[in-house]
């Protein structure tokens, strides 16, 4: 089966808005390859290229891709088959004014981060799937584990730049957005209007310095529309081989935990006939809360339930 | 080698204080079995036993165990060999005034938790290592994965009830405190004064309802004292087969993340000669932040680094 390719050269967005128009249109079930540019639009090509402040436009998301027939209330499934690194190196950067340790209450913590700084992370030549991080006379090889940083659909009413995660997805910076997993988004607008970019060759849960190893990629995906979901969803979910995970973004990690947890309770109630309290108690025994990122304007958390205890959320 | 047994009947504490006195004294390297009672001191034996409010004394921690020769500035290693469930059932409870969804800002979340409630979780008879959670006509089998909820040493200057986690350990409610892992604590007082209890037969990361499956146990541990650490530590760490993890507790998850992350930077700097900024950037590529619990008076986070990138933190 031939794949349709859509490139960042065909179109990118820097803002998810309710009224996005597709640059291309695909049918559910169609196999796509989505080409993405790195989150800094290629501006950083060596360690001499430092980013003084967050650019007005970051995290270019290739698209929007109109998914024919998707209607508000449906669920859009994005099966992420494979993410290939499309250049010879990624880059990690610090920017003054961004990152976990930037806006620090220094009480009891003695930290002095030197920003801006860029470290290039070359992809190893020998095909063993590693990045090289070299600094201060030390060289370390890091496994390549690609992540789609920004992925989402046209939101319901508000607009969100591609720096912000919210109920439509967006800058979720969630390591589970990787090959072999499937991401699910609520459809708020006709044809869903999917866009993705801001990929990393590797990223820690938390994305503490504000970036992973930012890189351009080719992403093989297959889209599907679930048009009569058992339950509608308010926020994204991600399916891994072993677990279902709700994904929620909010101003604080505590609030994101509350949202990710109550989203999970709803699907446990629907599957098992639990009342809310029993769902709450059961969900306190298996799986649990995970950190996606702690650095974006809203932070992101997920709540995992092993598939043994949830056949399907919708 | 014969094991020394210390039971909750020999002594328990409900507060970690700087001036703890040991109920027993052991030499480094001695193999111990520590018997613990459940976090509610056996008060809940059926679903008719509900807990109206958090008791003044919870999380009885067996000990204190004086570790001969441990001096302030040392590191106490607690190798957790095995945790055996010592009764026929655990119990999950909700208490009004406790748990992630209790003190909820309901803006946008419609939740109504029925507290107090108790669910007994019997240990399955057929020896397959499962708990049964039964409610609302549904029965689910959950793998037994024991956790030591409260484990710590005499603190430096302040006192902390066994409901509170802090730099001395205490109510960390961290799933990595399990068999096969080793926990490390800063030694603040002569002979360290280790105590542990509040075990769970299973617990989700987050402990959202405020408990796991609370249970009495027998814990096989071997203690060791690292008396010339490469670096002193301010807070606990835990070693799993694959990773080192810093563990930090604070009033908010964000602050706990800052502490767990800066603790990790210090050990990465010592191992690799990185400056603080490069340690920060490198740590944003591998491992990452994890949630321990979001319900205690202080919340707890850990930050993981794969062992491939850290031979030893001290």
Key features of this structure:
homodimer, mainly beta, 9-stranded mixed β-sheet, globular
Explain what the structure shows.
The structure is a homodimer of 314-residue chains. With 314 residues, chain A is mainly β. Chain A has one domain: Acetamidase/Formamidase-like domains (Jelly Rolls, Sandwich), CATH 2.60.120. Helices cover 9% and strands 37% of the residues of chain A. Chain A is built from 2 helices and 22 strands. Chain A has helices spanning 253-272, 276-283; strands spanning 4-6, 12-13, 15-16, 24-26, 31-36, 61-67, 75-85, 89-94, 117-122, 130-135, 138-143, 147-152, 160-161, 165-166, 169-170, 182-186, 194-200, 217-226, 237-239, 243-250, 288-293, 299-306. In chain A, the strands form 5 sheets. The first copy, chain A, has a 9-stranded mixed sheet with strand order 1-5-18-7-16-19-20-22-21. In chain A, strands 2, 4, 6, 12, 14, 15 and 17 form a 7-stranded mixed sheet that branches. The longest helix of chain A has 20 residues, at 253-272. The interface between A and B is large, with 74 and 74 residues.
The largest interface is: A-B, 74 and 74 residues
Order of adjacent strands in the largest pleated sheet of chain A? 1-5-18-7-16-19-20-22-21
Question: What's the shape of chain A?
Answer: globular
- Helix percent band of chain A: under 10%
Q: In DSSP terms, counting alpha (H) and pi (I) runs of 4 or more, how many helices of chain A?
A: 2
Q: How many domains comprise the coordinates of chain A?
A: 1
Q: What's the overall average pLDDT of chain A, rounded?
A: 95
Name the helix and strand elements of chain A from N-terminus to C-terminus, one letter apiece.
EEEEEEEEEEEEEEEEEEEEHHEE
Strand content of chain A: 35-45%
Q: Note the gap between the termini of chain A.
A: 29 Å
Unreliable stretches covering 5 or more consecutive residues of chain A? none
Cα Rg of chain A: 19 Å
InterPro entries (chains A, B): FmdA_AmdA
Protein name (chains A, B): Acetamidase/formamidase family protein
Organism (chains A, B): Natronoglomus mannanivorans
GO molecular function, one term (chains A, B): hydrolase activity, acting on carbon-nitrogen (but not peptide) bonds, in linear amides
């Amino acid at each position: 089966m031939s794949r349709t390719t859509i490139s960042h050269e065909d179109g990118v967005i820097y803002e998810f808005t309710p009224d996005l128009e597709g640059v291309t249109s695909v049918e559910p079930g169609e196999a796509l390859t989505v080409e993405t540019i790195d989150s800094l639009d290629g501006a950083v090509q060596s360690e001499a290229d430092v980013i003084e402040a967050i650019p007005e436009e970051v995290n270019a998301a290739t698209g929007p891709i109109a998914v024919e027939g998707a209607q508000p209330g449906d669920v859009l499934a994005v099966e992420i088959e494979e993410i290939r690194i499309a250049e010879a190196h990624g880059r990690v950067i610090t920017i003054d004014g961004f990152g976990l340790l930037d806006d620090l209450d220094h009480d009891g913590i003695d930290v002095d981060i030197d920003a801006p700084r860029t470290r290039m992370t070359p992809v190893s030549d020998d095909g063993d799937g590693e990045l090289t991080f070299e600094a201060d006379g030390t060289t370390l090889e890091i496994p390549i584990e690609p992540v789609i940083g920004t992925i989402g659909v046209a939101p319901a009413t508000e607009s969100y730049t591609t720096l912000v995660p919210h109920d439509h997805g967006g800058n979720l910076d969630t390591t589970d957005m990787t090959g072999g997993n499937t991401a699910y988004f609520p459809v708020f607008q006709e044809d869903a209007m999917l866009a993705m970019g801001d990929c990393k060759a590797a990223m820690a849960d938390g994305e503490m310095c504000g970036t992973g190893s930012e890189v351009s990629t080719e992403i093989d995906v297959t889209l599907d529309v679930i048009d009569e979901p058992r339950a509608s969803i308010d926020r994204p979910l991600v399916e891994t081989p072993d677990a279902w995970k709700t994904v929620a973004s909010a101003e604080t990690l505590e609030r994101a935990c509350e949202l990710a947890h109550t989203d999970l309770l709803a699907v446990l109630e629907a599957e098992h006939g639990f009342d809310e309290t029993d769902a709450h108690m059961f969900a306190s025994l298996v799986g649990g809360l995970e950190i996606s990122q702690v650095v974006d304007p809203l932070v992101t958390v997920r709540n995992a339930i092993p598939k043994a205890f949830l056949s399907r959320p919708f």
